[in-house]
Specification:
single chain; about 775 residues; alpha/beta; Serine Threonine Protein Phosphatase 5, Tetratricopeptide repeat; Rossmann fold; 34 helices
Length: about 775
């Protein structure tokens, strides 16, 4: 309703007394909420006096109250035409326009009200809401502040101000605003929920739950309180409890699509995959434009290798919300798993432009197979970190000086199981000098009870199974262990937990085995002169600790190959053809790379390309691409999984030359090939992921297999295939270098890594900031 009703009638007019009496009666029943009676009385006045300002204005107010906002705006506009100097009319018209989502027009109407009454607190407050809805958050906060200055008892304005600050991620200021709202109105449920959301933003999940519980105590039927409680429990890895909270929210609000979607996330973590899919399905059935539900379901389908379904979901999520975190990148990455390269160049260009516009549209790991640009990959990591893993409140480590007899190294990984990272690093953990270093393993992933898991657990002085713990709990445990150097082994691969490092639980924090994390809480990254040359330092947020040979550890001491390789016929390979091998994941392939390979096959008569089988759709698409390049589909042969890792290594000897991928090189796969004596041809690129194989080949002193351009790549592959003497010389050199060069010398590698650790530690103990470190042979 209007702030204050005023009449423009003169008592001297014959009908003035009658109209005034009707107006008084109308206002009285209006205030009592008897809206239909009020409408009849206001309409009666207009029969007597058709241009009666108050009757038209207040009919507009009633229309707004009964959700007929367009009629309200039209009626109040008519009233303003009669009396353009009434602030309440502009205020009420602004309210109707705001409900119609005509936000700029609403703001203009509120501005008119304020021009007429400069101390109009409600107009400032509602103008703030309209600005807020336009995402003009700074303007909204300024309006809210003015409204509060004029009316310090306005709990709803403090509430709205808290919401704006929350969206700006100014969590402490948001909490202060919610506190003011609660002080004025202690039963303001939305303020407790908002306060909980701000605490959740600060990663104070237990405190957030306390606030949600307070909201539920005030109103046991508030579905939002249970929903947000479920979100906080999810963050604490209390997935069963989270599902219970979502179920309560759904019981109170059967159409709560967002609760079903997030319930699916928790069920996925509980490995109840069918139930998770069913929950996503329900969310989508309830709200078919809920982009998050499609994105979540797509992620689960991708994990289950149901790539066609994953692509459909990511496609829908992206169409609904082009800037939904990760959706655009997940869509393209799913297409790459399928080797579906339609519109590939345009989609890569568009995605890279989004990254360079500071959008978190793609996860850094997926982007490695998409972009050749080191600068863009840095931007991607920074965007992803800022969106998903920002610095988390006050650091847990507060600058205390640790004094230990040994340097304590904490290795954090979700992959302490039958996984390539476990096989790469196990030898390093075994080879560490236990007289100088104390090792703590922090496992954030599941145990598979495999022999490699048992070996890893034995290698550490202490092993913490933290899979079921929340990030804050893990960080507190790390602080309690007084870790000197905390090492991340995941990067941004599946299972990554940078949120632990965001809490700064250790004085020195290091990124290992990946490119830049783009995060201010990582001090160092391990590199080498090939993968991170001096000219590339600007592409890394961290200071680089340079090892002299390669950044990548290897441990193949237990992998003894049989004297005789298997027969080619066992794998469908022609006995006399030249066999090019490319055992990369399908998402690392792209049309430009594949066309190079097809050009090589055209030039080498009868040759075949031996690829890893990923899925039927990828194989079919690759065969179609081969035909389009003039190559028979039978010249592509797909390698199925074999019973053991030893069998996999051994079959490499059936191939003649390994063709590496760019811009995402083979990592462990390249090491496998080299260990088996299979030469690897790589084309070095700019970004981290495009320089890995060059680093490995340099460390085994095979630089002649590193080329700079597409033409050189094709020419050398063709020459090696046609010149048996040259290829045999390359193979002989590789076999000679295997035991003699640093690539597979785990003990030497570990001594170099320890030298880097000691340099980091000594700088820290001396009170010096992180800086570039150079380990010498």
């Amino acid at each position: 309703m209007a702030r204050k009703l005023k009449t423009n009638m003169s008592a001297a007019h014959p009908s003035a007394a009658l109209v005034q009496a009707k107006l008084n009666e109308a206002v009285a029943v209006h205030r009592q909420g008897r809206l239909q009676e009020a409408i009849a009385l206001y309409s009666g006045i207009l029969e007597i006096q058709p241009r009666h300002f108050d009757a038209i204005h207040l009919l507009g107010v009633v229309a707004d109250q009964t959700k007929n906002h367009q009629l309200a705006a039209d009626l109040i506009a008519q009233a303003i035409a009669i009396n353009p100097n009434n602030a309440d009319a502009y205020f009420n018209r602004g309210n109707a326009l705001k409900e119609l989502n005509h936000l700029d027009a609403a703001i203009a109407s509120y501005d008119k009200a304020i021009a007429l009454i400069p101390r109009y607190a409600n107009a400032y407050g509602n103008r703030g809401v309209a600005q807020h809805n336009l995402n003009r958050l700074a303007d909204a906060i300024a309006s809210y502040d003015k409204a509060i200055e004029l009316n310090p008892a306005a709990a709803d304005v403090y509430l709205n101000r808290g919401r704006a600050l929350l969206e700006l991620r100014q969590f402490d200021a948001a909490i202060a605003s919610y506190d003011q709202a609660i002080a004025i109105k202690p039963d303001l449920i939305a303020a407790y929920i908002g306060r909980g959301n701000a605490l959740k933003g600060l990663k104070q999940f237990e405190a957030a739950i306390t606030n949600y519980d307070r909201a539920s105590a005030l109103d046991p039927n508030n579905a939002n309180a249970y929903y947000n409680r479920g979100n906080a429990l999810d963050e604490l890895k209390q997935f069963s409890a989270a599902v219970e909270s979502y179920d309560k929210a759904i019981a109170l609000h059967a159409g709560f699509a967002e609760a079903y979607s997030n319930r699916g996330v928790a069920l996925k973590e509980l490995k109840q995959l069918d139930a998770a899919i069913a929950s996503y399905d329900t969310a989508i059935a309830l709200k078919d434009d809920l982009a998050e539900a499609y994105n979540n379901r797509g992620g689960l389908f991708k994990e289950c290798k149901r790539h066609i379904e994953a692509l459909a979901d990511f496609d829908r999520a992206y169409s609904l919300d082009p800037d939904l975190a990760g959706a655009e990148g997940s869509r393209l990455h799913s297409k790459m798993y399928l080797c579906d390269w339609r519109d590939f160049d345009e989609e890569c260009r568009r995605l890279e432009a989004a990254v360079n516009s500071q959008k978190a549209n793609v996860a850094p790991f997926a982007f490695m197979s998409i972009s050749h640009s080191a600068a863009a990959q840095l931007n991607c990591a920074r965007n992803w970190t800022a969106k998903n893993f920002p610095v988390s409140g006050e650091p847990i480590w507060r600058g205390e000086a640790y004094k230990h007899d040994k340097i304590r190294i904490g290795y954090v990984s979700s992959d302490y199981r039958d996984h390539p990272i476990a096989y790469l690093t196990a030898g390093v953990f075994d080879a560490h000098d236990k007289a100088q270093f104390e090792l703590v393993g922090i496992s954030t992933g599941p145990s598979d009870n495999s022999p490699i898991r048992a070996r890893l657990e034995r290698a550490f002085d202490r092993f913490i199974d933290a899979e079921a713990l929340g990030s804050n709990e893990i960080a507190q445990r790390i602080r309690g262990e007084e870790i000197d150097i905390l090492v991340d082994l995941n990067g941004y691969t599946e299972g990554a937990r940078p949120d632990i490092f965001a809490r700064r639980p250790a004085p020195i924090q290091m990124n290992y085995l990946s490119g830049t994390m783009g995060a201010p809480y990582f001090d160092y990254v391990i590199g080498d002169p090939v993968i991170m040359p001096d000219s590339h330092r600007g592409f890394y947020h961290e200071k680089i600790a340079y090892l002299p040979d390669t950044y990548l550890p290897n441990d193949y001491r237990d992998q003894v190959l049989p004297d005789r390789p298997p027969a080619r016929g066992d794998f469908g390979l022609p006995e006399r053809a030249f066999v090019f091998c490319a055992f990369n994941n399908s998402f690392k392939l792209n049309p430009h790379l594949f066309r190079k390979w097809m050009a090589i096959l055209r030039a080498v008569e009868g040759s075949v390309l031996w690829l890893t089988f990923q899925n039927d759709d990828a194989s079919d698409n690759l065969r179609s691409e081969a035909v389009a390049c003039g190559i028979g589909p039978d010249r592509l042969i797909f390698a199925e999984r074999v019973p053991s890792y030893s069998d996999h290594l051994s079959r490499h000897r059936l191939a003649d030359l390994f063709l590496d991928a760019v811009p995402f090189n083979a990592h462990t796969t390249a090491c496998d090939a080299l260990w088996a004596g299979l030469p690897v041809l790589t084309q070095i690129g700019e970004a981290f992921s495009a320089r890995v194989a060059a680093s490995l080949l340099t460390a085994i002193d095979m630089p002649e297999l590193v080329v700079q351009s597409d033409d050189d790549y094709q020419a050398l592959a063709i020459e090696l295939a046609k010149n048996a003497a040259k290829l045999n010389a390359v193979k002989s050199k590789l076999l000679k270098n295997l035991p003699a060069k640093p690539l597979f010398d785990t003990r030497l590698y570990t001594r170099h890594l320890e030298s880097a650790y000691q340099a980091m530690y000594q700088r820290h103990q001396a009170g010096l900031p992180p800086d570039y470190i150079f380990v010498r042979d």
